[in-house]
Fold this protein.
Amino acid sequence: MLIVHVQIRVKPECVEAFKAATLANASASLKEPGIARFDFCQRSDDPTRFVLVEAYRTEEAPAAHKQTAHYAAWRKVADPMMAETRSGVWMKSLYPEDAGW
Amino acid sequence: MLIVHVQIRVKPECVEAFKAATLANASASLKEPGIARFDFCQRSDDPTRFVLVEAYRTEEAPAAHKQTAHYAAWRKVADPMMAETRSGVWMKSLYPEDAGW
C-alpha cells in the first residue's frame, strides 16, 4: 500500500467551499478500484489547514486517479482556493498489512 | 473521530529496532475500544522518518491509550531511538464519517 499525505492551506474565505468540493472528490475517489482510503481531515489548530490521506493499492493507481473526471473537477474548483502550493509526502505502510486498509 | 498525525525521526542505527517496537505497539493499540485505526508508515524519501496515524473514537480515548502497558513499553524502548522530539498535529475527520473509520 502506497500512502500520500497532502498538506493543504486554503484562503480563509474559501474554507466552506473547499470542504464541499473536497468531500465530493473524496467520496468519488474512494470508489476507484485502486484506492483503499481517501481521508479528509481539518486541523484543530487552524481551520484553513487540511490533510488528505490517500492510500493506493498499486503503483499505477495514483496516475489513474489523476485521469478521473472527479479529480479534474476538484482541481478546477480547488486550485484557486489554495493559499499556498500544496505538498505531498509519500510513504509505504508498515501497519496494518494491505488487507487492513 | 479525532485524528493525530505524529511525525517521528529516529537515529539511522535504530530504524529496524524502532519498526519492530512500533509494530508491536500498533497492533496492541488497535485492540483498544477507543482506537479505530493505528497506521504506521515509513517515508519513501527518508527511511529514518515515520508517521503514525491514530484515530480515536472519543475525546477520552487518547488519555486511555497513554495508560496502557503497551504504550508505556513502547515509550521506554522508542524514546531513546528518537533523533528529535516527535510532534503531533490534531485534526477532526471530515471524510469518511465515523462508520468509515
About this structure: Strands of chain A lie at 2-9, 35-43, 49-56, 87-95. Residues 2-93 of chain A form a domain with the Alpha-Beta Plaits fold (CATH 3.30.70.100).
